[in-house]
Amino acid sequence: MPLEWVTGLYGVIDRIASMAGAALGGGLIAWVGAPGALYADAASFLVCALILGLTAGSPPLVPVADRDPVPYVQKLRRGWDFLRRDVVLVGMSAIVAATNLLDLAWSAVLMPVWGRNSGHGAAGIGVLFAVFSACAALSSMAAARWAERLPRFRTYVIAYLLTGLPRFAVLALGSPLCVCVAVFAIGGLACGFLNPILGAVVFERIPERLVGRVSALNSALCWSLMPLGGLLGGLLAASLGLAPVLWVVGTAYLLVTLLPLLVPSFREFDSRPAPEPVRARTSGHSV
């Protein structure tokens, strides 16, 4: 089974949850106000904890003799030694970390400020987030079906370009809400192709014995700058104003997403492992 099928379907679930959350959050704020929406959000976490506690079984106990004697820190060090030697994985992690930083500045600070200044409020923000996530879910389904036939590197670059600067520019220009919805829809459709491609590349390049620790380190690197996104957005918005900071952050997003064009190793995105040979079968058992 092509990895894009698995990573694409995983992305569909994530995007559908984002779409429902954005729409529900905007609706709750418009209906009961921000404090009431926060109480509802807190209650949803309690419900999720109860569902998890009632449905998740206990993990199987591993006998002491079968446990890996290698200390946890040493395992992580081995994963890091592999990760830092793979130029593609390191470059991909750095780019995703930078775009996550800019995305958090946008979603945590710049979008709420735009909602207040434009008069569209929480409802307008909810509409844009829901449209973006819905279109991303649709394109994730398409990626699960057809991404294996597409040139990965070209698709990756084009998708990043469409999902980045345009959504910052349309807000900075003070465009009508209908125009913003159209631009966000295009960005969402492009965005849905990113995670299936990135996930497939990650799993293809990591040896099976190192998948857990290397993929965990890769995720940690990708998320490492996210806590600073709100701080960055707040400082820039307070010092420059909304429209200038949207152009600054959007331009930075564009420059970051153009970096793969300057790094030859990113062309390895299109290198897929050879399919495993079909094994002969005798009496219903693999030989």
Indicate the topology.
Layout: H1 3-55, H2 72-85, H3 87-118, H4 121-146, H5 152-163, H6 165-172, H7 177-191, H8 194-205, H9 211-223, H10 229-240, H11 242-258, E1 281-282, E2 285-286
Antiparallel strand pairs: 1-2
Largest sheet: 2 strands, antiparallel
CATH architecture assignment: Up-down Bundle
| Low-pLDDT sequence parts | 275-287
Strand content: under 5%
Return the average pLDDT rounded to an integer. Answer: 80
Query: What is the domain tally?
Result: 1
Protein name: Major Facilitator Superfamily transporter
Membrane topology: Multi-pass membrane protein
Keywords: Cell membrane, Membrane, Transmembrane, Transmembrane helix
Transmembrane segments: 12-32, 38-57, 87-109, 121-144, 156-175, 181-203, 215-238, 244-263
Which features would summarize this protein structure in a list?
287 residues, disordered C terminus, single chain, Growth Hormone, Chain: A, 2 strands, MFS_trans_sf, globular, mainly alpha, membrane, MFS, MFS_dom, transmembrane helix, 11 helices, two-stranded antiparallel sheet, 75% helix
Structural overview:
With 287 residues, the chain is mostly helical. The protein has one domain: Growth Hormone, Chain: A, CATH 1.20.1250. It contains eleven helices and two strands, in the order αααααααααααββ. The protein has a two-stranded antiparallel ribbon. The protein is globular, with a radius of gyration of 22 Å. It is found in: Cell membrane.
